[in-house]
Each structure stands twice: as structure tokens, then as C-alpha cells.
Design a protein that fits this description.
Order of helices and strands: EHEHEHEHEHHEHHE
Oligomer: single chain
Radius of gyration: 17 Å
CATH architecture: 3-Layer(aba) Sandwich
CATH class: Alpha Beta
Largest sheet: 7 strands, parallel
Number of domains: 1
Number of helices: 8
Strand content: 15-25%
Structural class: alpha/beta
CATH superfamily: NAD(P)-binding Rossmann-like Domain
Bound molecules: nicotinamide-adenine-dinucleotide
């Protein structure tokens, strides 16, 4: 307990399964948390549960497809929340489609939310982290970025690019006592995969998951806590794979 006392953490996608679990985990470890999402009602609901427990939590709207929305949100946060120590880029979209059938709009939206959105949020928090002389950036990728999978070229490409971006960023920031790393989960029990029918899910578990089950969001959050804490001071531009054995690097 108490690994993040005195820290202010911003979590995008905090209306979603993994983002919410990370917000709760960080809050339980003493961080003040800002829950950002385009689904503001759910983000507010998640924040209110923490506030009811006496924690400091706020929720705000962000649309990662709109640079102005991102700038406005981070500038509001600087006033109402303070200088960020930790950023987790958990917000993302996923959908399927063979590359030869993907529309350009589908491709652009995927890259726009998952890669460009993460880039813009990173850019917003760096000045605060430099002023704090301490920072942690955790970008969320996916095991698909390493393994590949038919029908997910746009999603996998966006996540592979997030990994490459984070490696470069980690080197740009290392002397400022800011660590940037990637958390790369395997299939996790959230709304992102809840649309799968039983047969697809069963095939996924049989074909892909040596561990025989999905991850729970709390397990991904525990890995995020490690990367957010002082314990991860020696981690620079690494990817922490937490995937039940879908692939082994
Ligand atoms: N669930 C999985 O199986 C799985 C596996 C590997 C990686 N991941 C990654 O983990 C992260 C969290 O995923 P999750 O499972 O919690 O998904 P989720 O769908 O439950 O949550 C994603 C959140 O992102 C938000 N979002 C989407 N587009 C947005 C936009 N334009 N602006 C602002 N917010 C937006 C959604 O409203 C949602 O609350 C994602 O980066 C995802 O790619 C998930």
C-alpha cells in the first residue's frame, strides 16, 4: 500500500475496463487520479466510486480524435488537478477487417485514436513532468502488435507504432527522471472483447491462451502499478508483456 502517495495520475480510457482498474489501483496506492474518457458519464461514475471512499478523483471529457479537445482537457486539468506525475494512455479502439477490405477512414480512425491520440497526450504531460522532475508514462499496446493476427492489421500497426514511439520517447526523457514504458496485455475481460460470440471466445482461449482464461483487468492494473512506481526506475523504453502466454518474447 502507498506506492503512489503524493502522485497525480492521469488515465485515459478510464471509463473502460482496464483504465478503470488502473484508476482504482493507483487510487488505492495513494495517487490522486484524473479519469479521462469520451464516455464522460461512465468516467464520472467510476470517479464517484473513488470519491465516496474518500479518495481524490476527478473525471473529464476527452476525445482523442480532436487535438483541441486534448489541449483543452489537459489545460483544464493543470488548473483543477495540478501537475501530472503519471500518464497512462489506455484509451483505444479495436475492430476487425481484412486489410484488402479496410476503408481508408477505418485505418485513419484506428491510427488517429490509438497512435496519434497517445502521442498528443504524451506531448501534453511532458512539461508538467519536467517541472516535477519525476514522471511515468505508460502506453498500452497489445500482444497482437508482436504476434500478428488476420483481420487486425490496423489495430496491430497502431499498437506496434506505440511501442516504437515509446522507445524513442523514453530516451528523450531519461535524463529528466521521466520513464516511458509500454504495457502490452493479452486478451482481457473487458468490453473490448465482450462482443465476441461464445465460439470465437472459446477458439481464442483454445488456440491462443496457454493459460486457458482471459486476464482480469485488475491483473493488468497490477503491472501498470509496477511501471508507475519508483520500483520501475530502471525500466526505460521496455515493453512489459502480460498475456497468459499468447506469445513469449
Ligand atoms: N481488452 C483486451 O483484450 C485488450 C488486449 C490488449 C490490449 N488492450 C488495450 O488495453 C487498453 C484498454 O482497453 P480496454 O479493454 O479497457 O477497452 P475498453 O473498450 O473497455 O476501454 C477503452 C476506452 O477508451 C475510450 N475511447 C475510445 N475512443 C476514444 C476517444 N476517441 N477518445 C477518448 N476515449 C476513447 C472508450 O470510451 C473506452 O472507455 C486499450 O489500449 C486496448 O487496446 C486490451
Amino acid at each position: 500500500m502507498g506506492k503512489l502517495i503524493g502522485k497525480k495520475a492521469i488515465i485515459t480510457g478510464a471509463a473502460g475496463g482496464i483504465g478503470q482498474a488502473i484508476a482504482e489501483k493507483f487510487s488505492n496506492e495513494g495517487a490522486d487520479v484524473a479519469l479521462l474518457d469520451m464516455n464522460i458519464d461512465q468516467a464520472k461514475h467510476n470517479a464517484s466510486k473513488l470519491i465516496a471512499e474518500g479518495k481524490i478523483a476527478i473525471a473529464d471529457h476527452i476525445n482523442l480524435l480532436e487535438e483541441d479537445s486534448i489541449k483543452d482537457t489537459f489545460s483544464r486539468l493543470k488548473e483543477s488537478f495540478g501537475l501530472a506525475h503519471i500518464l497512462v494512455n489506455s484509451a483505444a479502439i479495436a475492430d476487425g477487417g481484412l486489410l484488402e477490405e479496410l476503408s481508408t477512414a477505418q485505418w485513419d480512425k484506428m491510427i488517429g485514436v490509438n497512435l496519434r491520440g497517445s502521442f498528443l497526450c504524451c506531448r501534453e504531460v511532458i512539461p508538467s513532468m519536467k517541472r516535477n522532475r519525476w514522471g511515468r508514462i505508460i502506453n498500452i499496446a497489445s500482444e497482437v502488435a508482436h504476434r500478428g493476427h488476420p483481420g487486425l492489421s490496423h489495430y496491430a500497426a497502431s499498437k506496434a507504432a506505440v511501442i516504437a514511439m515509446t522507445k524513442c520517447l523514453s530516451l528523450e526523457l531519461v535524463e529528466d527522471n521521466i520513464r516511458a514504458n509500454v504495457l502490452s496485455p493479452g486478451p482481457t475481460d473487458t468490453s473490448m472483447i465482450s462482443g465476441l460470440d461464445e465460439e470465437t471466445l472459446s477458439n481464442l482461449l483454445t488456440d491462443l491462451m496457454p493459460i486457458g482464461r482471459l486476464a482480469q483487468p485488475n491483473e493488468i492494473a497490477s503491472a501498470a502499478l509496477y511501471l508507475a512506481s519508483d520500483d520501475a526506475d530502471f525500466c526505460v523504453g521496455m515493453t512489459l508483456n502480460i498475456n497468459g502466454g499468447t506469445h513469449r518474447l
